[in-house]
Write a structure and sequence with these properties.
The protein is of the alpha+beta class. The protein has seven helices and 18 strands. The chain has two domains: 109 residues, no CATH class; 271 residues, no CATH class. The longest helix is centred in the C-terminal third of the chain and has 26 residues. It is flat and about 100 Å long.
Length: 400
């Protein structure tokens, strides 16, 4: 973007200040290739970089402290029919794009990952976001803004580590965490669907049957009747309907799914319509798991609930599902960004990852375990077990 100025500016500092004000007063949107636009976040007072302030609806200037309220977008969060999304993917399949980013603050060019949606300029740390305008990607519909500040997230992580009994003491002192602590929005799909499942199977009902047995009692044979639980099976068939709302599927692969899923539950009712201002100063990612793959994952989660509903409908003491056919109706989806504080560290040559839910403060992750603590615990349990057994064998049975 080029700027023109009046001749009244006589020195470089005046020109630089005027350039910043002119840039802020106009649009922060910058042209970027034929498919993508960039958005740089600058203060309307001094032109310096602004960042999103967690738990607020504001951007704060990193230089002068000026705060700007994030204006809500005009449209509401909507969910798109699933078939429409599938059709869009068939017409415009996902393809690589130009990922060279030119910072308008310092003029430096850097290379982003294809899945990066927002980041900082590696040279001047200016927050930059790609506008979600790519025709070959499904659009982001909603975002859950960060509610937990970085300091609060660090406290949550420190508390979590303190409660890890087997963690080394040096790790509990948070060594190596603060240098790699960053906020990131991770993409998720949500799915709604009304399912109809026709099934056939068996219902098992318990009954008691007495069998006659001969046992030796006090050295003599004795005939006794022993109750045995049997199952009587009946053929059944029926239909169940289950409504699903906001089945959540992680769409990024940069952090193991098992770690991210432990951050649940998310309060999706606090989501707002997507606008890039919430990304200022934070990293964020596009989806890597496409819509079709994600819906298959969602169906696996739905299948568990459907089976539970079928078993409840069958009734009885035991159930067997022999055949099932499910139809999915009124299925919709949306793409949503969820906030995560991320910390990666190395301990004795091995890399560990921990994450904090940027909305609730819940912590999940990996951590090294102290071999000395594990061995000590095993020895302690063994001594206690031996002591209890010794006491019981000598005193608990009444023998003195």
């Amino acid at each position: 973007m080029k700027f023109s100025f009046s001749k009244k500016f006589q020195n470089k500092s005046q020109k630089k200040q005027a350039q910043r004000q002119h840039q802020a007063a106009q649009s922060d949107t910058l042209a970027f290739s034929d498919k993508v636009s960039l958005h740089q976040f600058s203060c309307h007072q001094c032109g310096a970089a602004t960042e999103y302030l967690p738990s607020s609806q504001k951007l704060i200037c990193t230089s002068c402290g000026h705060e700007e309220v994030i204006q809500p977008v005009s449209h509401q969060i909507t969910e798109t029919p699933l078939e429409k999304g599938f059709k869009n993917l068939r017409i415009k399949p996902l393809s690589p794009i130009n990922n060279q980013v030119l910072c308008q603050n310092c003029g430096a060019s850097s290379t982003w990952d294809i899945d990066s949606l927002s980041d900082l300029c590696p040279y001047c740390q200016t927050p930059i976001a790609k506008l979600d305008t790519e025709n070959n990607r499904l659009q982001i519909e909603a975002i859950v803004p960060f509610a937990l500040s970085k300091n609060s997230a660090k406290k949550s992580l420190a508390k979590w580590l303190k409660n890890r009994w087997f963690a080394p003491n040096t790790l509990k002192q948070m060594q190596g965490h603060y240098k790699q602590f960053e906020g990131i929005y991770l993409p998720h799909w949500t799915f709604d669907s009304l399912t109809h499942s026709d099934y056939s199977g068996l219902r098992g009902e318990y009954y008691i049957e007495y069998i006659t047995q001969t046992r030796i009692v006090n050295g003599r044979p004795k005939t006794v009747r022993t109750p045995v639980t049997r199952t009587r099976w009946f053929r059944v068939a029926g239909q169940v309907r289950v409504m699903f709302d906001d089945i959540l599927v992680l769409a990024s692969m940069i952090i193991p799914k098992i770690i991210i899923n432990r951050l649940r539950p998310w309060h999706l009712s606090e989501a707002v319509a997507y606008t890039p201002e919430y990304l200022a100063g934070l990293k964020s990612k596009y989806y890597q798991l496409d819509l079709q793959q994600a819906f298959k994952v969602a169906q696996q989660s739905m299948n568990t609930e459907i089976n539970r509903a079928i078993r409840q409908d069958i009734g009885g003491d035991r159930q067997q599902i022999q055949h099932k056919k499910t139809r999915y109706q009124n299925s919709t989806y949306k793409l949503i960004l969820l906030p995560v504080w991320y910390s990666s560290f190395e301990y004795r040559g091995k890399r560990y990852q921990t994450v904090i839910n940027g909305q609730t403060g819940k912590v999940s992750g990996e951590y090294p375990k102290s071999h000395f603590k594990i061995i000590g615990t095993v020895i302690l349990v063994t001594l206690l077990t031996t002591g209890v057994f010794y006491w019981w064998s000598h005193y608990g049975s009444g023998t003195y």
